[in-house]
Specification:
Chain A has helices at about 1-15, 25-45, 50-70, 75-95, 95-115, 215-220, 255-275, and strands at about 125-135, 150, 155-165, 170-180, 180-190, 195-200, 210, 235-240, 245-250, 250-255. Chain A has about 280 residues and is an alpha+beta fold. In chain A, the strands form three sheets. A five-stranded antiparallel beta sheet of chain A has the order 3-4-1-8-7, with no helix packed on it. A three-stranded antiparallel beta sheet of chain A has the order 2-5-6, with no helix packed on it. In chain A, strands 9-10 form a two-stranded antiparallel ribbon. In chain A, helix 2 (about 25-45) runs antiparallel to helix 5 (about 95-115) and helix 3 runs antiparallel to helix 4 (about 75-95). Chain A is elongated and about 85 Å long. Helix content of chain B is about 30%, strand content about 25%. The longest helix of chain B has about 40 residues, at about 45-85. Chain B is built from 19 helices and 36 strands. In chain B, the strands form ten sheets. Chain B has an eight-stranded mixed beta sheet, sandwiched between helices. In chain B, strands 13-12-21-20 form a four-stranded mixed beta sheet, with no helix packed on it. A four-stranded antiparallel beta sheet of chain B has the order 14-15-16-17, with no helix packed on it. In chain B, strand 4 and strand 5 form a beta hairpin. Chain B has about 725 residues and is α+β, with helices and mostly antiparallel strands. The radius of gyration of chain B is 30 Å and the shape is globular. Classes of the chains: A alpha+beta (about 280), B alpha+beta (about 725).
Chain lengths: ~280, ~725
């Protein structure tokens, strides 16, 4: 999984690099259209188009029946009942393409989330870095018996406060602030073990990793923006609280995923006739 | 710079806030289980489409249903205010099944042979009688009298064709399709400012409109002469005279590598494919005129034909929508044909195709392109969405008025089997829409006309008579029993309807006329020419179609269409020479006397014309002046010839009919009555087709209007017995 994520990171960094300097609505729109087309193709190839058409025709016939026999209450109820009976059938016919799309879409959304889901650190704006130590393991201690966890920040990043140790959460926090834009690498040390964590201060749409997680499969699936934390490390996860980003879709400020949902649906509905797909 | 943790602060433990991705991805997984909202659970258009569409449908239908339920009391109150108290009906449902052209003689024969058990059962429940047709006994005339309860002089339909009095050219008798004259101009595009005016020329009021005025619902399926559709309280699907996409009454196409041997006489266009031995042909399927462009060029869509001679198969691709591979002789299902007229404007049609030969030559038959019922280019139903509803309910169906392509069989482009399959498929479509409507009908009337009986008897009558001239001309015998099989099929329909009858129902099974043989054609124009009533232009031999060769300055009478003859009356016809009044009456009487009893000398003096009728004596009404002056009552075996019907005057007066179209009903109406079966005993000995309309009104408690020429078949008061009450009790 780590190898796959590494390849996908490189691929998406490359593919999305031309859009890095543009407002995020541009790449999100472009990606939505491409994804809409791709998913239409998958839908066409993996679904039973004839059955979908048949069940939709019957549903629409019932809708017309409600309009046509609007003086006939039993006919209205019968038509309504027919619709409710057929909707599950219609949905069930979407499950096969849904199954085909599920994994690729999760991988895609996970990659896109780290390009368009967060803003870069603003210079001078404080942000928390939280490192959680693995539960159950012995705490790294120095010779004096104090907790031996340290953070090294490169030039351009300033550690303003911390560390603060919360024993109940086994969490160490620092307050950081970027002094100028750039892509940085923080180094955390726990005893003799060290771990890096990326930090990005930029207006551009670059990959940002708000969390570096361990090697569990689901964690890797959902947080692929950095390599997983090695199993030998005393750290369970390291989080950097990037502010969330929004897409400006014709004045509507919303999460990129919502915009993606709307735009890809619109694109696909607009193109389904051209591609000859029954939805 | 290194910072070492050394102090523990008593911070309140809290759950780490998960990034938004976590929720989205989990929701995406949840979607797979089918319960999440689409915006949260987006995993691509697949799920989005299904959910968005489903929610939209559920939402819309619930809103519609709630609105219908909430509005119901107000609608009832409004109806009561507008239409008054509903009349006291004597039946709950009136079901009228029409088998166009079902003949009494054949019905009697098959009944006697025990081949029609359900008709027999129906006759035993109620009654069976011959049903008097109209003068002339033609479907458009007869069904118009059926619906309005009037003679033709009151409903204005006398034939399939009428003539333009200014030009003598033929025109449809039932419908006028106007031109669009006003456009907005936008570069090369012209945007029509209004729709072409469609006018139904049938006058008087059909009984379903009168029922609707009293709040009684009717469903009317494919009753002839209902285009454009009537507007009334109910639903109607138009029939006869609905054009194809080319605006004609049915034009088939033949794409062929064979050299042209002239134009088809009726209803077809030959399209050349070149070169003959090729394995792939790129051609175009032409549609209607493009109103959006200045010169109105025909719309067309690409069609590619890939021929596999070894496998005897061909692949036909029409536009980007349809691709079908067919073996020789295999008839396709309905295929969509889309003509793009302007950005965002598509004219939709449906057609069926058949590869008729693959060998040295390749030929492809394309049936007339019907208006697509899902998105018809013209109004073919009331309400306008009714055709769409039916298409969604039962699938695509033929919309063309004369949907069964008799011309292609006449021209031997297709064979008996293809025609039969096409006709029976259309009959299946009709059955599906009829039974779906019957299941929906709670109260009111349902009328449905099945055309297969008419078409199959027209085309297969030759097999009933060994000495029919068309029998040897069309020697295929595989489908020789087609007529009998069709009567049995009708019987099955009657059986299914009987099984669905309920207490308070009344069922009529009727036909508009019977059938007889068409062995010999009578060229009325040739007879008029021979007898000095018609003259030809200098140098013409009378073979010009549509009266092109006629010298009107010397012509007193002429024939066009199937029903009869017209006098060339001064002041009525543009170049009329016969004075109206006494001269016209005398001329009519003269022709009538000479032509009645006309004998076919080639056939041993057999009578070809039994009687000629003066329409002024047959009926009266405001549209009498539009009627042919004389209606010809042919004998069994005779009918107006093909040439005469299209306004030609050349050739002999009598000639053999060699076409597959070998049976007909355009004869003396007295010899081709229709059938009348009813689930209840009637109080009239000799019912007529016209009587159904006033009967329908009285069954629902309405008084027939005074202008109706017919009488109800049941006396006033409650019906004698309800056969379906017994059935309900037994059940």
């Amino acid at each position: 999984m780590a190898t796959l994520n590494s390849l996908l990171r490189q691929l998406f960094d490359l593919l999305l690099s031309p859009f890095a300097g543009l407002p995020s609505v541009v790449p999100v729109t472009a990606i939505s259209v491409v994804v809409g087309v791709a998913m239409l193709w998958v839908y066409k190839k993996t679904s039973n188009q004839q059955k979908i058409e048949d069940v939709k025709q019957q549903i629409f016939a019932s809708v017309f029946e409600i309009r046509l026999f609007n003086d006939n209450l039993p006919a209205i109820f019968r038509a309504q009942g027919d619709i409710f009976r057929r909707i599950p059938r219609y949905l069930s016919l979407s499950f096969v393409p849904l199954a085909w799309m599920l994994l690729p879409m999760v991988l895609l959304i996970a990659q896109l989330q780290f390009h368009y889901g967060y803003q870069g650190l603003q210079p001078g704006q404080p942000v928390l870095l939280k490192a959680t130590l693995k539960p159950g393991a012995s705490l790294p201690q120095d010779a004096a018996g104090a907790l031996d966890v340290a953070l090294s920040a490169p030039e351009g990043l300033k550690v303003e406060a911390g560390p603060v140790w919360v024993p109940a959460l086994r969490e160490v926090s620092w307050r950081l602030a970027a002094e100028r834009p750039g892509s940085y690498q923080l180094t955390l040390k726990a005893g003799s073990e060290s771990l890096t964590k990326t930090a990005v201060s930029s207006e551009k749409n670059l990959r940002r990793s708000p969390i570096r997680v361990g090697g569990a499969l689901l964690d890797q699936l959902l947080y692929p923006a950095e390599d997983p934390i090695p199993t030998t490390s005393p750290f369970a996860e390291v989080k950097l609280d990037y502010p969330e980003a929004e897409v400006n879709l014709l004045g509507w400020h919303t999460h990129w995923l919502i915009a993606f949902f709307v735009l890809s649906l619109v694109a696909a509905f607009a193109l389904k006739g051209w591609m000859g797909v029954e939805l | 710079m290194a910072h070492t943790a050394s102090v523990a602060l008593p911070l309140k433990p809290r759950r780490a806030s998960a990034p938004k991705l976590h929720a989205a991805a989990l929701a995406a997984l949840a979607l797979a289980l089918g319960w999440a909202l689409p915006a949260q659970a987006y995993v691509g258009p697949g799920a989005g489409f299904a959910l968005a569409s489903s929610f939209a449908v559920v939402f819309v239908t619930i809103v519609l249903a709630i609105f219908a339920i909430l509005a119901y009391p107000f609608r009832v109150a409004w109806r009561r205010l507008r239409r008054g108290k509903p009349p006291q009906a004597r039946v709950k449902r009136l079901i009228v099944v029409g088998f166009d052209g079902q003949d009494t003689r054949l019905t009697d024969r098959f009944l006697a042979e025990g081949k029609l058990p359900n008709f027999k059962k129906l006759a035993e429940l109620g009654c069976y009688r011959p049903l008097a047709s109209t003068y002339p006994s033609l479907s458009p005339v007869a069904w118009s009298s059926f619906s309005t309860g009037t003679h033709p002089a009151k409903h204005n339909i006398f034939d399939f064709l009428d003539r333009d009095r200014r030009t003598y050219l033929p025109m449809l008798s039932s419908t006028r399709i106007g031109e669009v004259r006003r456009f907005f101009r936008l570069g090369k595009w012209r945007i029509p400012r209004d729709k072409p005016e469609l006018t139904l020329l049938r006058r008087s009021t059909p009984f379903w409109t009168l029922l609707g005025q009293k709040g009684i619902w009717s469903t009317v399926l494919r009753v002839p002469i209902t285009f454009p559709p009537d507007r009334f309280y109910g639903a109607e699907l138009s029939a006869m005279c609905v054009p194809d996409l080319l605006g004609t009454q049915g034009t088939f196409l033949l794409f062929t590598t064979r050299p042209a041997s002239g134009k088809f006489k009726e209803g077809g266009i030959r399209v050349a494919l070149e070169p003959p031995g090729a394995e792939r042909f790129e051609t175009r399927l032409e549609g209607p005129e493009n109103l959006f462009l200045e010169d109105r060029p025909p719309l067309s869509t690409a069609m590619s034909l890939t021929v596999d001679r070894a496998a005897k198969k061909a692949t036909i691709a029409i536009g980007s929508e349809e691709t079908v591979t067919l073996a020789v002789g295999e008839l396709s299902g309905w295929l969509s044909v889309l003509f793009k007229a302007a950005p965002g404007v598509t004219v939709r049609g449906i057609t069926r195709v058949q590869v008729t030969e693959i060998g040295e030559h390749f030929s492809l038959y394309v049936a007339p392109i019907n208006l697509d019922p899902e998105g018809p280019a013209m109004p073919i139903s009331h309400p306008s969405y009714y055709a769409t509803y039916l298409a969604k309910k039962i699938g695509p169906f033929a919309t063309l008025g004369l949907a069964e392509d008799t011309w292609s069989l006449n021209e031997k482009v297709v064979d008996d089997g293809t025609f039969l399959k096409q006709t029976l498929d259309i009959d299946d479509e009709r059955q599906r829409m009829f039974f779906a409507s019957l299941d929906q009908l709670k109260k009111g009337s349902l009328v449905c006309v099945f055309d297969a009986t008419d078409r199959i008897q027209h085309m297969f009558w030759r097999y009933l008579e060994k000495d029919h001239p068309a029998h040897s001309a069309n020697p295929q015998t595989e489908h020789a029993n087609a007529i009998e099989e069709l009567y049995r099929r009708n019987d099955e329909v009657v059986g299914k309807v009987l099984a669905k009858m309920r207490r308070g129902d009344l069922l009529m099974v009727i036909s508009d006329h019977g059938f007889t043989s068409f062995r010999r054609g009578v060229n009325l124009n040739a007879w008029l020419l021979a007898n000095g009533y018609l003259a030809l232009k200098e140098g013409c031999d009378g073979s010009g179609e549509w009266l092109a060769d006629i010298d009107w300055s010397r012509t007193r009478a002429y024939g066009v269409g199937l029903a009869g003859m017209f006098l060339n009356v001064r002041g009525r016809e543009a170049q009329g020479i016969v004075e109206p009044g006494r001269e016209a009456a005398a001329l009519k009487a003269e022709i009538l006397a000479k032509m009645s009893g006309l004998k076919d000398t080639e056939k041993g003096g057999e009578v070809g014309i039994r009687e000629v009728f003066d329409t002024a004596k047959l009926y009266s009404g405001p549209y009498l002046e539009n009627a042919p002056d004389l209606i010809v009552g042919y004998n069994h075996g005779y009918r107006v010839s093909w040439d005469s019907a299209t306004g030609m005057a050349s050739g002999a007066v009598f000639e053999d009919n060699l076409k597959a179209w070998s049976g007909d009903h355009c004869v003396d109406p007295r010899i081709v009555p229709g059938v009348f079966f009813c689930s209840h005993k009637i109080d009239v000995d000799q019912p007529a087709l016209m009587d159904v309309a006033p009967t329908a009104l009285t069954l629902f408690g309405l008084e027939p209007p005074a202008h109706m020429d017919a009488r109800p078949l049941f006396k006033a008061g409650p019906l004698a017995a309800d056969p379906f009450a017994r059935k309900a009790k037994a059940a």
